[in-house]
Amino acid sequence: MDFQTSNHILAALTVEDRSLLRPLLQTVDLPRGAVIEAEDAIPPFVYFLEGGLASILAVTPHEDDKIEVGLYGREGMSGTAILHDVDHGPLRTVIQCAGSAQRVQFAKLQDLLVQRPAISAVFSKWQRVFAVQLAHTALSNGRNSLEKRLARWILMAHDRIGHELDLTHEFLSVMLGVRRAGVTTAIHMLEGEYLIKATRGRIVVLNRVGLKERAGAAYGVPEAYYERVLGRPVANFAEPDQPGRTEQSSTRIPAAASGT
Amino acid sequence: MPKFYFDVRDGSRFIPDEEGSNLADLAAAEREAAVAAAEIGRERLPQGELRTIVVEVRNHHGQRVLTATAALTVERVVPEPGPQLSD
């Protein structure tokens, strides 16, 4: 029997594959801070997010030396090490914005993949588009100003969460790999241009079109690749058509359209 | 661990820190402020409209305990006359 899910990877499977997977799935809430993949371990579960935001951190034995290298929400899944029969390696996946997910035991999914190679093929596509996102995060970290990187990050979170983002500056400083004072300054700059409104622990997107202009080429290339490969956009809402900072573009995207 | 607040003075703008950071001691706050000033300076100073970034650190009583300033100086120099080339 088929079922509805907001997770793009599950939705991309054939009806038959999805029905075979369904009895193995369990719906779980993922609170902020939950570690769904620990470094150098085989994760006990593979998660298909239906909301919220997961962040991949590159970590070293020095706890301070960590930086976010990629993120995903309901457009992705954890546990792609399953495709290679290896452990997770020196990366950590942490839930940054709470949400819910369908999860399946790693070992059970492994057994299913042996019988159903078409499932692996969908997972591989996701792994490929995610690799491209990681590459572009490296590009952005190396080449873009902090304000552009912040604009890119907010747009990526906006695609997955909606217009209200519960984020502390402390958290963003780990995400962007700079001291918190630098994040505060960059937020202040974007606020001064009326692109976002920041209050303690929360960022509200006011003008998505303006943010995209601010981010320039730092945002959008991996998103286009995702859409090309997986056949649907990362975000669940329609983009306003008109370019530039028109009155209309500065209206909030309604919560209903963001799918939350 | 004591809490420190890192306000940024960026030309005429003053950007207050409302969250604060827990750090081991004043020496850790000094390193944090110095790196922050250098990072913000790296972004903002080459744009040319300002020449100093000041990070002001307050303790949990709101008292200022240190400042870290990053500055950039650019000078154009008129070249000294070189040796005359003989024909």
Automatic annotation (TrEMBL), chain A:
State the name under which the record lists this protein.
Crp/Fnr family transcriptional regulator
Reply yes or no: does the keyword Transcription regulation apply: yes
Q: Which SUPFAM superfamilies match?
A: cAMP-binding domain-like, Winged helix' DNA-binding domain
Question: Which superkingdom?
Answer: Bacteria
Its organism's taxonomic lineage begins at: Bacteria, Pseudomonadati, Pseudomonadota, Alphaproteobacteria, Hyphomicrobiales
Q: What keyword terms does UniProt attach to this protein? A: DNA-binding, Transcription, Transcription regulation
Residue ranges of the HTH crp-type domain? 148-213
In this chain, the stretch annotated as Disordered covers: 236-260
